[in-house]
Specification:
single chain, alpha+beta, Aminoglycoside 3'-phosphotransferase, Chain: A, domain 2, 2 domains, 9 strands, Aminoglycoside_PTrfase, Ser/Thr protein kinase RdoA (MazF antagonist), kinase, Pseudomonas-type_ThrB, homoserine kinase activity
Length: 380
Amino acid sequence: MSGAAAHGLTRDPAAPAWERIGAEFSDVLAAWPALGPWFEIDWHAPRPFAATARVRTAAGTVFVKRHHPMLRSVDDLRCEHRFAAHVAASLARQGVAVPVPLAGRDGATAQLAAGWVWEVLPAVPGHDVYRDTLSWEPPAQAGVAVAAGRALAGLHRAAAGFDAPARRAPWLVGRFAPLDAPDPLAALLGSVGTAALPHAALARWPDWRSRCMQVLGGRLARFAAEPRQPPLWTHGDWHVSNLLWTQAEAAGGAGEVAAVLDFGLADRSCALFDLATAIERNAVAWLDLDSNAPIARPAIARALLDGYHALQPLDRPARRTLAALLPVVHVGFALSEIGYFHVLRGEPDSVALAFETFLLGHASWFDTPDGVSLLAALLD
C-alpha cells in the first residue's frame, strides 16, 4: 500500500488499507460521460474501508469511491443509493443536503470496472469541519451535539416509507443482527462458522464462546427483554465527521448541520439503534480506553438526546430501552470487523483489536463508574 497515513483502529497513524485512487480511474469515469474530462485529484480520504478521492472534473468537483467487490456488490450499493435518494428530498426541505450518487450512462449509480465497484458523488454545500477527526472522537461543544441529534431525528422522519430488506453485504454495515433475534446471544454464537465469520477467525481464542457468554450474555438478555422496535432504515454511522456544517460551526460556534454524508453503513435496523450508535460514536472517547482518564462525555450524550427529543420525543420507556441497547449496540459491527479483517484483509492484529478491545472491551467498560455515569445520563 502507498500514500499518506490513514485512520486506523487506534490513534497511531496507519498505512492506507487500500491503494489510493489514481489515473487508472480515467476509463471508469467514461461510464459517467456528463462529467467530461478530469483535471486533478486534490484529496484522498483517510477513512479505512474504501478508497475515496476528491476529483476536479469539467462538470465540477466530485467524490469517487472504489470498493472491493467482496465488500460491496453493485446491487448492494444501488440499494444504499436508493435509500440516500429517498431521504434526500425530505431533508432538502429542512435545508439539509444529501450527496445522492450520480447516475451513469446506463442510468446506474454503481459500476463494476477494472475489478472494483465504483460510485461517484457530487459535492454539496457545507463546511467539512471534522474531516480529519478520528471516528469515536467526541465533539468538544454540546451545541454541536444538539444540532447533530436534531438532524438525526430529521433523517429518521425522512426515512419513513423506505421499505427494503436488510443489506446482503457480508461486512461493515450497521446491521441490527444479532440484536434483533429473540435470543441475541444464541444468534451471536451461531454467526461464527459462516463464510463471513469462519471459525478460523477466532481460533486463537479457544475460550471465545465462554468469554462472549460472560461479557455479553447478560447485556444481550437485558436488551432482548425490552419491547421490540419498529424497523427503519437508518444511517448507521452518525458521527460529526460524517456531517457538513454551516459557517457558524466552521467559525467555532454551535452551527447547524448543512449536509449528511456517507451512507455506507446504512441498513435496516431501528431508530433507537441508530440513536444509540450516535451516542456510542460521539459521547465516548474510545481511543483513550486504555488511559486513566474518564472517557465518557455525559454532557454530549444529553445534548444529542436533547436535540433528538426536540423533533422526535423520547418517553421514559424509550430511554430505558436505549440504556439497555447502548452497551451492546456495537456487537454486530464488531463481529463484522472480525470477519472483514480475517477473510478479506488477513490482518491478525486487527482481528485481535476487533475481538478483545471492540467486541468485549467496549461492553465491559459499561460496568466501570465512567460507563455507569453515561448510562445514567440517558435516563436523566
